[in-house]
Each structure stands twice: as C-alpha cells, then as structure tokens.
C-alpha cells in the first residue's frame, strides 16, 4: 500500500487494514510501518511548474547567475497581503509589500507608497523594481506606468516564491504575529507595526545575500522548485 501511494496517512492505512479484516490500533500501524523501514514525513508544498515554466526559471536563473549581492540590494520587493483577525476584519499592509488588487488600484499603491519609499531609500540613485506576475502587475497600463516613471522592472519567472526573499521576510512577521495573538483590528495593526519595526537590517541583508545561493539551487534543480 505504501509503495503504491506515498501520500497515505497512518489513518488511511489503518482504515484499509480494518476493511480487509485486520483490527489494529493507530500506534500498531505506526510501529509496523517503522519496522518495514518507512518513516512518516509531511510532504512539502511546492508550486506546480510545467515544462515551459521550468525552462523560464532556469533561463532566468542562468541570466542572473553572476549578479552580486550589491546588485540584488538595489531591488525593491513588494507584496500585496491581507491579514485577518479571528473575526471578519482585515487590514492592508504596505512595507515594501503590497490582497488582490486591479491594475488601477495597484498603480495607486505604487504612486502613493512605493515611490516615496524608493525616494527615501535610494534618493536619486537608480534601482530595479521586482514584482511577480499577478494580473495587476503584468497589465499593460502598469507597464506603461513604470515606463512613464523611468523605473526598471526585473523580469520574473512564474510560480517562483523560492526566488523571492521577501517571502521569508513576511514569514518572520507572521511568526511574530502568532506570538502576539491580536484579537481586535487595532491590536492587529499595532502588532503588524511592531513586528515590522523589530526586523533588523542584518536580517534583510542576510536574505538579500541568499540570492546567489537561490540562483544556484534553481540551476542545480534544472528549473524545478527548490
């Protein structure tokens, strides 16, 4: 049974054994599986990538293979997110992050939040902006907005959260929020601000410095998820 389907749980195995007339406990099933040389593992969830997407990831990683950490540090990485408390209340977050928005509202976010942030971070220096391939991001009007503002956008392969270090940064924020356990909207906002403020520049730098390793991992995996 295990060899035919590695995703069977101990409960699934016990149910099948019971249906075949073998009465046993879950603990006994676990021991027998261990005795047979198998170990229980939680499967990792990875984005589904077709061959074309894997090739694009591999090409992208090969092109960026020799980028330095200094080059990666000139990249603005936003993400749209919506965090909710126990009841149906929510709050939108921007912190070089940015829920599902249309092209027009996305451009308003860029105008009113990203531009001031970039000006504060980089002044008159050039920088490269990165976002994923969400419809609002890849819309023609959004592309025109970036062209009109003279901002270079980094080409980005589909289904590639493993290449985006801000995913790890947001995970840090979420872990801190779990510890805070906010119950009201005001508590949620305060917890988000406190979590974000507690992230150190060193943590950000370590994530940016991981980009060469991520690139090499994608090349080693021939475009598959890492």
Structure write-up:
With 226 residues, this protein is mostly helical. Helix content is 52%, strand content 6%. It has eleven helices and five strands. It has helices at 10-19, 26-35, 51-63, 69-72, 103-122, 135-138, 140-148, 166-180, 185-197, 201-209, 211-220; strands at 75-76, 81-84, 90-93, 128-129, 152-153. The strands form two sheets. A three-stranded parallel β-sheet has the order 1-4-5, with no helix packed on it. Strand 2 (81-84) and strand 3 form a beta hairpin. Helix 3 packs across helix 11 and helix 8 (166-180) packs across helix 9. The chain is extended and about 75 Å long. The protein starts with 9 loop residues before the first helix and ends in a 6-residue tail after the last helix. Residues 80-88 have low confidence and may be disordered. Residues 2-64 form the Transposase Tc1-like domain. Residues 95-189 form the Tc1-like transposase DDE domain. This is Transposase.
Strand order of the largest sheet: 1-4-5
Query: Quick one: overall form?
Result: extended
Contiguous runs where pLDDT drops below 50 for at least 5 residues: 80-88
Cα end-to-end separation: 28 Å
Return the average pLDDT rounded to an integer.
81
Over all CA atoms, what is the radius of gyration?
23 Å
Fraction of residues in β-strands: 5-15%
Order of helices and strands: HHHHEEEHEHHEHHHH
Determine the fraction of residues in helical runs and give it as a percent range. 40-55%
Number of DSSP E strands: 5
Structural class: mainly alpha
Number of H- or I-type helical stretches: 11
Largest sheet: 3 strands, parallel
């Amino acid at each position: 049974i295990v060899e035919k389907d590695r995703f069977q749980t101990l409960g699934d195995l016990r149910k099948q054994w019971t249906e075949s007339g073998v009465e046993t406990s879950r603990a006994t099933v676990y021991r027998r599986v261990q005795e047979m040389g198998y170990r229980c593992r939680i499967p990792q969830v990875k984005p589904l990538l077709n061959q074309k997407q894997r090739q694009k990831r591999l090409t992208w990683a090969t092109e960026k293979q020799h980028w330095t950490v200094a080059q990666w540090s000139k990249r603005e990485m936003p993400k749209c997110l919506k965090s909710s408390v126990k009841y149906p209340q929510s709050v939108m977050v921007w912190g070089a992050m940015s829920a599902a928005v249309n092209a027009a509202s996305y451009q308003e976010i860029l105008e009113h939040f990203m531009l001031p942030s970039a000006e504060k971070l980089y002044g008159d220096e050039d920088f490269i902006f990165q976002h994923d391939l969400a419809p609002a991001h890849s819309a023609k009007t959004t592309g025109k907005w970036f062209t009109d503002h003279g901002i270079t956008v980094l080409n980005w392969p589909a289904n590639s959260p493993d290449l985006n270090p801000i995913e790890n940064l947001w995970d840090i924020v979420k872990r801190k929020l779990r510890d805070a356990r906010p119950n009201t909207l005001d508590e949620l906002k305060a917890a988000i601000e406190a979590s974000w403020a507690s992230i150190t520049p060193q943590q950000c730098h370590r994530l940016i410095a991981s980009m060469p390793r991520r690139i090499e991992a994608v090349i080693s995996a021939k475009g598959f998820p890492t």
